[in-house]
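Before any further analysis, we paired sequence with structure tokens, yielding the entry below:
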Amino acid sequence: MTVITVLYSSQSRMLKGPLSRLIKEVLPEHDDLNYVDVDMSFAKLIDLSNECLALPIGYDKKAIVAENFFYLAKTREKKKLIKGDDDEPLLAFFRNPDPLIHLFILVYSDSLDEKSVYYKALAEGDAKFLPVASLDSNQWQAFIPKYFEKHSASIEELAVNELLERTGGDYSLFIQEANKLLAYTNGDPIRLVDVQQLVPAPLEDDIFLLSNALTKGDKKTALHIWKDMQVRGSASNAIPLMNMLANQFVFLDQIRYLYRRGMEAYDISSKLKCSLGRVKACLYNVRKMASPCLHRAINQLYVYQSSVFQGKMTDKLAFEMFIANFEI
């Protein structure tokens, strides 16, 4: 029987269900002595190895969960040991695990570093590597109504689509927003308007709507979107928003250029690898715009950013001035 199991996914909450089922299989009843949770964000490897080598008196099994074992994650950065730490005892346990100690290692990454000494030692000790896949769009469409049914609630089909769009397949974010909706509706069916009012739209959508309003010449709507972002707390730092807005104007300029060369919306979406609906929405406005207008907007964003970095104005004031002074 496998005594070391590595579960990995970039969405940490997705690991909780499989972990719970595995622990129940090996240790149906547990307490603070025969079940230990170690957060590797702070703990040393030597601390984890000490837990792996200690079976409490009077118990025939022990389960250990090593959360966020980032040493196994595939990243560009080299993992360094905490000062005074020692990984040799843990590597020895990985290679030759105690059959009475069940170790569950959680890695918050979609892939593992198979070249690391930890992976090789685990493989040598016959550890089980268990990827936990994220849900695809069809699985989400089925999962969302069932989640609310389990909580004695229902949700409209349009509300399902909107909730999926706004949470973007992020499991932790979905759970957070779903619980908010459950508390707000208090057993009533969850409607599209509930999702629109309570669940924040992705930041990219806000930038798209804001740029769309500006290219229409509708500064009032653009300022309203900006104020709404501030209320929701998604505009705590306007500098990244300026960068996103500049990228959106570059995107608009690319659409305009391809359209002027005779390409239709479908061909443009294929060329730029983006949504056909988004291309169509952008085309409506950029058909009437001259390229210098977009170039001027990008340059203005750079100027306002420079003013912020030089301490001449706050980031929020710079963003508002850009909107107020935007010209088609």
About this structure: The mean pLDDT is 88. The domain at 137-198 is CATH 1.10.8 (Helicase, Ruva Protein; domain 3).
